[in-house]
């Protein structure tokens, strides 16, 4: 269990001494080298918290984040630095993620300079290469973020992450702020970079439709708990968990199955006082008595697939 009480409670404006929030509770997620793992859920489900912990920006108060098989909290010196650099994050909303007072060459060149990856005379060519890689004209490197379009700013954010030569990138709603046509361009860029640079991604989105085409596997979270995980095609073809089914029902173009699922009803409850039993029961069209009292465990339902729903016990 990862108790992120204080941070989450502050975000929610609550008295930190009085509440304990398990923002991410019993989440077990392994991502294989070279794969794209989509992490999906409504806002407030804990997926950003999980992403920040994976990227080393927040520490779990319990549990472990392992990178290349090692608990990152136990790493020291060069090994700790290496792990920190090899996992980078690309944030939501590039406008607020980029310092408006810095030029693009300063934004992209900062980490390589600070970490000594490029010497003084090499930073310029380093930055130029990073910009070229994301499809930006290096001649624009002396400009400021506000002089770029939303799609270009997204590219700058990606160039900044790539500048330290990561293996693993956590994308947190990285295309959410963009128009649909620009979203597609940036998703294509992510996929091209994966091929070229042999990258692994954790791709976080509230929108199952966004992660569909880029994810090898998809993990679905609800109120801090993992509810379903499996290969992307299988999740779309035969969604098991009622919450996953509800998310699919919200995708306008969803037509991979003849089944129709009912859309999700009601608001997401507060993570401070989540419903007992299955957190999803107040919104679930299939809830029965057991759901109100007993937490469903994440169980294997097929090779490589897990789901946490009592319906899987009923036959
Ligand atoms: Fe719905 Fe019950 Fe399954 Fe939860 S455990 S998703 S409430 S049927
Ligand atoms: Mg978020």
TrEMBL record:
Residues 1-248 form the ABC transporter domain. The keyword Transport applies. GO terms for molecular function: ATP binding; ATP hydrolysis activity. Belongs to the ABC transporter superfamily. It comes from the Bacteria. Its main location: membrane. Keywords: ATP-binding, Nucleotide-binding, Transport. It comes from Aureimonas glaciei. The keyword Nucleotide-binding applies. It is found in: Cell inner membrane. This is ABC transporter ATP-binding protein. InterPro entries: AAA+_ATPase, ABC_transp_ATP-bind, ABC_transporter-like_ATP-bd, ABC_transporter-like_CS, Oligopep_ABC_C, P-loop_NTPase. One of its GO terms (cellular component) is plasma membrane. One of its GO terms (biological process) is peptide transport. Pfam families: ABC_tran, oligo_HPY. It is a peripheral membrane protein.
